[in-house]
């Protein structure tokens, strides 16, 4: 049995960052940038009005209330550039400023003195005007050549909106890791609505892991179940590898019982068992191996929370490495109450991060920490990690707190 830190180093050493591929921007949501992006234009691309009103030339001077102007023209959003002249132009929000004009007066701050065919021809100011007001300057948001996104950044909707605005139609992203999920056990029933016979349980680990892998940035190319049979296991493993899986995650059959066949089956295929059993709870029997073709194999225990811990703290760090993401940042928050833990084991507890009436954050470890319990997973919004030393973490101790997934920040809830 090895420490978590040693196991993590083995995982990272076995993981090689994936190459880049180019995608249309509209297909790149949630993907990881493979290279920096510099803007090829200024944003805004031209000086434009921030208000509906009248554009005029201040040239650094202020104007008093009562100052009158002749209206020389009209400029709407989408109109080409125009020569501003000495008077004022009626202008719409977002419209390009006529050349030479540098200030906008909101329409509610002018009095229409004369009009023709429904268009104002002469106005007077109702209030003083400062030079340069209500104008969005070219490049005020983004300058031409500015780096706007860095390699390793995930393309969320905000990033994609900016790229669209500066005219980027295609991006280089890191290829998605291809994953497979294998649930083992003759007791498993795959259909949720199917009635159970004596001794059967529903296969909830497989859909959980498929969802978690997808949320973490992987493409699940194969999934299935297999009974406690080495030949059948090898057959589904062959299917998963034929589908292109670079990373395989199984649940069950990794402990020390009569039907825990996965370690021997992997050795029989020529796999290198990197480690088997880690000083953690839940999930101690976890196995990691490298298959002859270089694919990475994670053998997670069958209890649902043990499988969830294996996914979150073993599989997801590897996914971050494959996706060229920086090491995950974590919170340090105080415990609300004393927490008992197994001595000598790194403990991963389902918890709630809560905010009190003064805006202070703290972590509450939930009751029902046994590895078979699903309700506490539903109630949790975070993981609390207690290091291996000792058997008690006192209230007020600052502990490591991580979101339910590496892409998912903690969703705060009010303290009960």
From TrEMBL:
Domain MoaB/Mog: 180-321
Protein origin, superkingdom: Bacteria
Catalytic activity: adenylyl-molybdopterin + molybdate = Mo-molybdopterin + AMP + H(+)
GO molecular function, one term: molybdopterin molybdotransferase activity
Protein name: Molybdopterin molybdenumtransferase
EC number annotated for this UniProt entry: 2.10.1.1
SMART domains listed in its UniProt record: MoCF_biosynth
GO CC annotations, alphabetized: cytosol
An individual GO BP term: Mo-molybdopterin cofactor biosynthetic process
Record organism: Stenotrophomonas maltophilia
